[in-house]
Amino acid sequence: MIVLVTGGAGFLGSHLCDRLIEQGADVLCVDNYYTGSRRNVQHLLSHPRFEMLRHDVTFPLYVEVQQIYNLACPASPIHYQRDPVQTTKTSVHGAINMLGLAKRTRARILQASTSEVYGDPAVHPQPETYWGHVNPVGPRSCYDEGKRCAETLFFDYYRQHRLEIKVARIFNTYGPRMRLDDGRVVSNFIVQALRGQDLTIYGDGSQTRSFCYVDDLIGALAALMQTAPEITGPINLGNPGEFSMLELAELVLELTGSKSKLVFHPLPADDPVQRCPDITLAREVLGWAPKVDLADGLRETIRYFREVLAA
Ligand SMILES: NC(=O)c1ccc[n+]([C@@H]2O[C@H](COP(=O)([O-])OP(=O)(O)OC[C@H]3O[C@@H](n4cnc5c(N)ncnc54)[C@H](O)[C@@H]3O)[C@@H](O)[C@H]2O)c1
Known about the structure:
The protein has helices at about 10-20, 75-80, 85-105, 140-160, 185-195, 215-225, 245-255, 280-285, 295-310, and strands spanning about 1-5, 25-30, 50-55, 65-70, 110-115, 165-170, 175, 200, 210, 210-215, 235, 240-245, 260-265. The chain has about 300 residues and is an alpha/beta fold. Helix 1 (about 10-20) crosses helix 6 (about 215-225), helix 5 (about 185-195) packs parallel to helix 7 (about 245-255) and helix 7 (about 245-255) packs across helix 9. Nicotinamide-adenine-dinucleotide binds next to helix 1, helix 3 and strand 5.
């Protein structure tokens, strides 16, 4: 079984490559290193069942594979907003190219979609049947609308070309191999705490997020890929435990033993007030639920960032 992972040198992609290698697959990892790095897959480069290819998914790819996990796309706002046109191209042209490849090889294909397809939701928690509340012209739209269009393409290839598709709507996931400059709250707080800098809180810190540890999420992606052909998703994957930014900041300070202070800044545009998955469908269809609690996941992540900062 040859499995293609696009975005395989990124945070989630590299953990997925690890898991697939452990499971005995041959893995073809494709990445243009826009936000990923060779360091994330360094330990796999000499593995006989692992192959790395530098390639941009906005261009067609001709390889022979049996499964495709399409993860290529910068995931953090500071990175996807740096070149928003490229972000939309990566989601939309990348989806077209990978779906074309799946059509030609008759490979099963999984899309890493996102909770951002719900935008600033009017419904909490968000079930898959909620169509979302998305600004089409704001600074986050390149990502949100790009991912929405990719979902549309997946379902049109499914209906029109009878492809076997799986669409996962991933909620906030954290863990080792996130970038130091990722800009999202978990890595921001940990890096600031370890450097003894003030922890930056946007708004009053009462907005909530749910945080899924990477090992849990990868287990769900692998399980979704193995489901029967009629299971297409979209399916929410995440951890429904909700924490306010203030609670997260205090936990990070406690676990790092840092003496950093909290400072408050205005909320950025289109920042959702609350984001929480309804994972009823994942529980039913995959028999899956996250197992790692926030403090344990943060300990592993803090250990990783300590190593990176010390290097
Ligand atoms: N981490 C999360 O919390 C989260 C949440 C929702 C959805 N997702 C989705 O999961 C996927 C992986 O996210 P991540 O957190 O690992 O982000 P990441 O930025 O670490 O990984 C994305 C990878 O894609 C690569 N890439 C970007 N554009 C590319 C292109 N045009 N061609 C080839 N490779 C390209 C990057 O270099 C990087 O290695 C993304 O599609 C993201 O939208 C992640």
